[in-house]
Write a structure and sequence with these properties.
The chain is an alpha/beta fold and about 450 residues long. The protein is about 30% helix and about 15% strand.
Length: about 450
């Protein structure tokens, strides 16, 4: 595929987008190996990076709405290692909006944009989608956005916005928690986009992010515009499906410890994981701290290594653990089965997988059958988020599987945040400013292709 033709469409939409021109330096973590997208977010115990329990409203978080440029977080730009893992330092210069650039990571190379949405693109009689906050929001920003909060918020959003939202149960976890799909827009639309979050337990800021994206889409459905088009017209042609929390058991465990698990059998298996990891030297932390770093599902399986994307190339020597175990076979877990069944249920225009950390967009994979579309979409997302692109070097990941399966889906994995997980609440403002437009960018791309 020729790079000079690859992303011609990227500049057309990127000029209407806003992004903070920042690439935050990353906290290094000492336990496991380097992070890859197939094993996304493998940044382990770093005492300096971890904020212990602390919920509540985020009134002090500097969330920037339209009308002011997002503040720069750090001056340092993050380069990329050969494996696609972010490293501290390095970085490439920012190119103006609409210009293509070849990134050193092998990604599509769309440069970060500056400024705000072009007010001339606002549809007469409607406000820019990002021009104001939601009044009396349902979804409260909290450091530990829990499964119970998500369920309650979905019920409230459904009551508040009625037919603009459909809520479905697509599966049930080992510990009996429902896995929800929330559909924004016309369910009979010609195009469909799938966005999921919370597949890794300790990355529980991503469910909060996509729930906020959903709430904004609902609030401005009838009176907002994006990129010169009314949101209602966009959502009439493209339905956006959010799966906010793929791994509810793991998230409950990471947030609240062993008492959050209802099943006695699961509690015993989790305790065995701890004993095994201690014996192997994979952790020296006390159990409560060990559980806060939990990445797997309730049975000790890393769900983003449980998909049939070169699964057999992952280590067969691992046992159930807080991180890194691929499972006994591909799609062995009810959570990965639910997401795979959803991915196979229709013809999707695009997928977005949210992870933490790294401020990077993984967009390619060996055998990718939808490389051009994935790259074009990535170029737009580089422009709107300010994140840089990289290929994927892990295996067993959801995005990788959807790109190589028989009916492939263009997709990206977006790694949010600049410090080790669990992310402190102080990260949320920058994450929101960079990602608030992502669903609309992807929906607009789907509509035009």
């Amino acid at each position: 595929m020729k790079k000079n033709r690859r992303y011609l469409l990227a500049g057309m939409l990127a000029a209407a987008l806003t992004a903070a021109d920042t690439s935050a330096a990353m906290a290094e973590a000492p336990v496991l190996g380097a992070s890859t997208e197939g094993n996304a977010g493998n940044n382990e115990e770093s005492a300096a990076s971890v904020v212990e329990a602390g919920g509540g409203m985020a009134e002090s978080v500097p969330v920037v709405e339209a009308g002011a440029n997002a503040p720069a977080a750090e001056a340092a730009g993050g380069g990329l290692s050969e494996g696609g893992s972010p490293v501290v330092g390095g970085g490439s210069p920012v190119i103006g909006v609409g210009a293509a650039a070849n990134s050193s990571s092998g990604g599509p190379g769309m440069a970060a944009g500056q400024g705000l949405s072009d007010p001339t693109n606002v549809v007469p009689g409607r406000i820019d989608y990002f021009a104001e906050p939601v009044k009396n929001p349902t979804v409260a920003v909290a450091e530990k956005y829990s499964y119970e909060s998500m369920v309650s918020d979905l019920e409230k959003l459904k009551s508040r916005y009625g037919g603009k939202l459909q809520v479905n149960v697509i599966g049930t976890s080992w510990d009996g928690r429902n896995i929800y799909e929330a559909v924004l827009g016309n369910p009979d639309a010609g195009k469909h986009v799938l966005i999921h979050a919370g597949i890794h337990a300790r990355e529980y800021m991503t469910p909060l992010l996509v729930m906020k994206q959903l709430e904004y889409g609902l609030e401005f459905y009838d009176r907002g515009s994006f990129g010169g088009q009314s949101l209602s017209a966009l959502l009439g042609q493209v339905a956006v499906h959010f799966v906010p929390m793929v791994n509810p058991d793991g998230i409950a465990l990471s947030q609240f410890g062993l008492d959050a698990i209802r099943s006695e059998q699961l509690r015993q298996e989790i305790q065995q994981c701890y004993a095994w990891d201690v014996s192997l030297g994979r952790t020296a932390a006390p159990m409560d701290r060990y559980l806060s770093y939990w990445k797997a599902n309730g049975r000790g399986v890393d769900l983003n290594q449980n998909f049939p994307a070169d699964w057999d190339m992952l280590s067969a020597d691992m046992a159930p653990s807080y991180a890194g175990y691929r499972g006994p076979e591909p799609l062995s877990e009810p959570e990965s089965q639910a997401l795979a069944n959803l991915a196979n249920s229709r013809k999707w225009a695009a997928t977005v997988s949210y992870h933490s950390m790294g401020n990077v967009i993984y967009w390619d994979y060996q055998g990718n059958r939808v490389q051009q579309a994935s790259g074009e979409m990535t170029a737009l997302l580089e422009g709107s988020t300010g994140y840089r692109a990289a290929g994927s070097s892990g295996h067993g990941g959801f995005k990788d599987w959807t790109q190589i399966k028989e009916d492939p889906i263009p997709g990206v994995t977006i790694e949010t945040g600049s410090v080790a997980c669990p992310l402190p609440l102080s990260e949320y403002g920058d994450i929101w400013n960079r990602n608030k437009m992502v669903w609309a960018v992807v929906a607009r791309y789907a509509m035009e292709h």
